[in-house]
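Example record

The entry below shows one chain as it appears in the dataset: sequence first, then structure tokens.
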Amino acid sequence: MKIEEYEAAVEAILFAMGDSVELSRIAAALEISEADAKRIIQSLSDRCSASSSGLQIIELDGSYQMCTKVSQYEYLIRIAKQPKRHVLTDVLLETLSIVAYKQPVTRVEIEKIRGVSCEHAVNRLVEYNLIREVGRLDAPGRPILFGTTEEFLRCFGVQSTDDLPTLDAEQVEEFKQEAQEEVQLKLNL
């Protein structure tokens, strides 16, 4: 097969599946190596990016998905009405950050870090499909372990959690100092 035929096959697979598809599954469907499949996907992605196509191919933790370019979003809104956007409050963002950086993590561990109950926040993040159950801790009661989802990666524009920003030691100390000052203020009230 010519590269154009492979690209057409990948395009059809990604379009029909809707969700992300693992590289290994694409390679198996095309009956080629994963390295060749990755080159074909990259070629197709480059072609979409360079053209006036309204589509793009994104990578999500070793899987690929075809989606609409952001520049075309306003036209989608006109035809389908604005999709419901989930509002991430400070509490939800804080809880999501803990899960993203500490995963897999239990609700009790999240509460220990936040210092308050987080059942509502965890339930809301599961409902928004930003976190999910990734297993159970081998401890009494077998608490649920939570981790981030592909939707999390998609929403925050990263390919994997390895791409999340890291804090340097100075920033960590700054945050600790702010937290201690906040606790002191609450104690003085």
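Notes for this example: The chain is about 55% helix and 15% strand. The chain has a mean pLDDT of 87.
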